[in-house]
Amino acid sequence: MKRRSFIKRTTIAGTAAAIFASSVPEALSQPKPESTQTPGTIIHSVYFWLKKGLTTSEKMEFLNFFQVLKNIPITNTLTFGKPAPTTTREVTDNTFDYNLIITFATLEDINVYETHPDHIKAAQEYSKYWEKVQVRDTVIG
């Protein structure tokens, strides 16, 4: 009797596992694709803390800064956003107002960007809106 009970339980468990495995979307069971960024790609992350008391109009004007930078031809990709409403933890910092992320193909490209006249002019023009900026650059290995 014990043997029949064991066989019945293992058969049910095996059937349940097979049903579960077949119901998991294929995309979830596949390994993540490798990054499309090649070794040597530079990820330029810039965090902005805007001045307190800016009007809605001034905040909207600040966003034009990103459009100016986007038009600098040496950039690969450019995106920006506000802090995500993730769980507050000791290791997270969601105190910034905007994060700008630009990728560059090479270290030489970011060096050109940093001294590009449009970048320098835009930073001078729009710096009136921020009280603090932090830059973190990463090279993909």
From TrEMBL:
Against SUPFAM superfamilies, the record matches this protein to:
Dimeric alpha+beta barrel
SMART domains in alphabetical order: Dabb
Give the protein name, as stated in the record: Secreted protein
| UniProt domain Stress-response A/B barrel: residue ranges | 42-138
Q: Where are the transmembrane segments?
A: none
InterPro entries hit by this protein: Dabb (IPR013097), Dimeric_a/b-barrel (IPR011008), TAT_signal_bac_arc (IPR019546)
Q: What is the lineage of its organism?
A: Bacteria, Pseudomonadati, Bacteroidota, Sphingobacteriia, Sphingobacteriales
Pfam entry (one): Dabb
